[in-house]
Amino acid sequence: MSSSLRMPLSSRSLIAVGAVALLAVTGCSGGNSTNGEGGGSADSLVIDAAFSIETADPGHSYDPTGNMLAKALYETLVDFEGSDVATPVPGLASWEQNDQATEFTFTLEGDRVFSDGSPIEAKDVVFSLQRIQGMVEAKPNFLLAGITIDEVDDKTVRFTTESPMLQLPAILANPALGIMNSDVVIENGGTTDGTDTAQKFLDSESAGSGPFVLDTLDLSSQIVLTGSDEYDGDEKSAYNRVVIRNVTESATQLANLKGGDTMVAMDLNGDQVATLGDDQNIDSVASAQTIFLMLNQNPEIAGDLANVKIAEAIRYAIDYDSLLELAGAGSVQATGVIPPAFEGALDSGIEQDLDRSAAALAEAGYTGQTLKLQFPNDYPVGGVEFTPLAERVQAQLEDAGIAVELAPAPFATELDAYVNGTEGFGLWFWGPDYADSANFLPFGPGLKVGLRSGWAAEMNPEVAGIAAGAASATDTDEREAAFTEFAEAMQADGPFVPLIVPGRNIAAAGDVTGAVYNSVWEMDIAEIAPAG
After folding, report:
1. How far apart are alpha carbons 344 and 477 in whole angstroms?
2. Whether 427 contacts 372, CB under 8 Å
3. What pTM did the predictor assign?
4. Start-end of H helices in 119-249
5. Which of 99, 231, 328, 496 lies at a 20 to 30 A Cα distance from 316?
């Protein structure tokens, strides 16, 4: 994953998520050359990206480049407009739900077709999603946990959930849940019983209804797409050919963009964006990831430092504006565990207050013990390098009377300590699996990330209850209020110190528009068009 450690909410994905994130490091092994097609032409688009992709099969894909590719090849029942991920809108289907938010009925709209001209029917929806449910080791499998999917008629599909699930429409917008031509996939090894062997076929040919079809796929160098002749949706691309090249170094992407060898560079950092001028179009926005500090509350791990009052002292000792200097364009202060643009996000963050920090230290009984800050030193997030960030945090905490020792380690090594909850004091990051605030409830006591910090539900039953109420809400207004209350409670009493929401920078040539970031699928290639 090039910019986000995605943390699935299912227990089965607890360890797998680390592997997903690790692919960001191991999956970007392609060279930095610009071999292949460059520059582009009137109907050809060239994109440079640091690849994080294993396959073109959406049912097995859960990586940033894979999501962007799936978005181009396959359509989903639900969509988002542009970069807005706050409001799900109909994609292939519209929907209704019952008052308990446990039954959702989706109706396919219009007479849409797949890339071979055959009609999209309810059987294709059911097969596509049940195929993922059957592949228990598939990365997107957890998205559909606890959901029953049934065909009502040729145009209608019913989803039944075990508990209230207002986030279901947002989940179904994930490109991994793209709808496939069931007849074609079944012919080529597709099944719903876990014996599926269609991935090899789907790495050579696509079977969706998106604006593009797959031409060639080379996971180490480049992916070529061509426009679908049968596409009859509302995202017809201005380009008939798209070349996505694996350029792992952001400096090379910058040089290619300035030199006219590429039209879109997806992985520039804030400093590089600052060197661009009016000759380029830049989309620089806050991402959906949060970089945070975590203080373990398990005495067996943190000893007498296992105290939320020490976390409070750290929270008010930080100079957040100073940290943002390291983050660059598009970055903002994290106002809480829920990042901006998500339901329940707080309007403003903590401001440094050294007096309050000192009072919290005194209440905690802190006597100068050294906190060992563990963090991955080889995995930047949104252009933010963790080593200089950790050094600045160390200096600020020491100024506030808190002794800190830095303990960097490679991502692959440090990940186990984080996931297994054996870090006493850690610097980490979190990104959503889908565009809904339910992604951030795991920070609560007794939940996935809370438990990684040794924070059991009985340590704060009040916050645990707020999280449970947000998870089970069936009224949208009550749900938003519950998420806001959760974010406020976490800032007051939690063992986490949210620091930065890194920026995401996508730069395009001046004669190209529509290259904008989306936290779900990175970028919608079909929206890119010649300026004017």
Report:
1. 11
2. no
3. 0.86
4. 122-134, 168-171, 182-187, 199-202
5. 328
CA dihedral of residues 152, 156, 158, 159 (deg, nearest 10): 150
The DSSP output letter for 113 is: B
As given in the structure block, the two tokens for residue 263 are 């039209």
- CA–CA separation, 235 and 187 (whole Å): 28
Name the strands in the sheet holding 496-501, side by side, starting at the edge strand that comes first in the sequence: 332-333, 496-501, 290-295, 425-430, 370-376, 403-409
The identity of residue 500, as a single letter, is I
C-alpha Rg value of the chain to the nearest Å: 23
Tens-digit pLDDT profile for residues 258-311: 999 999 999 998 889 989 988 899 999 999 999 999 999 999 999 999 999 999
Q: Is the pLDDT of residue 13 over 50?
A: no
- Classify residue 531 as exposed, middle or buried by CB count within 10 Å of its CB (0-12, 13-18, 19+): exposed
In the three-class reduction of DSSP (H, G, I as helix; E, B as strand; rest coil), residue 241 is classed as: strand
Judge contact between 50 and 265, C-beta under 8 A.
no
Could you tell me which residues come within 8 angstroms of residue 40 by beta carbon, excluding any fewer than 6 positions away?
46, 243, 262, 263
502 Cα distance to chain centroid = 12
Count CB neighbours of 273 within 10 A. 22
Local structure of residue 143 (DSSP, 8 states): G
pLDDT, tens digit, 9 for 90 and up, residues 311-344: 999 999 999 999 999 998 899 999 999 998 899 9
CA–CA dist 512, 238 (Å, integer) = 11
Contacts of 411 (CB under 8 A, 6+ apart): 21, 22, 25, 376, 378, 379
HSE-CB at 392 with a 13 A cutoff on CA atoms is 17
Is the pLDDT at 14 greater than 70? The verdict is no
Distance set, CA 149 to CA 113, 126, 154, 164, 281 (Å): 21, 6, 14, 15, 43
Q: Which residues contact 225 (CB under 8 A, 6 or more apart)?
A: 69, 72, 73, 212, 213, 214, 215, 241, 242, 244, 525
Question: What domains are there in the chain, each with its CATH number?
Answer: 72-196 (3.90.76.10), 290-501 (3.10.105.10)
Q: CA dihedral defined by 505, 509, 515, 516, rounded to 10 degrees?
A: 30
pLDDT of residue 41: 59
pLDDT 10s digits, 381-411? 888 999 999 999 999 999 999 999 999 999 9
d(CA 51, CA 248): 7
Q: Which of 375, 373, 282, 378 is nearest to 328 (CA)?
A: 282
Amino acid found at 202: L
CA angle 432, 437, 441 (to 5 degrees): 85
Distance set, CA 4 to CA 178, 232, 379 (Å)? 21, 33, 10
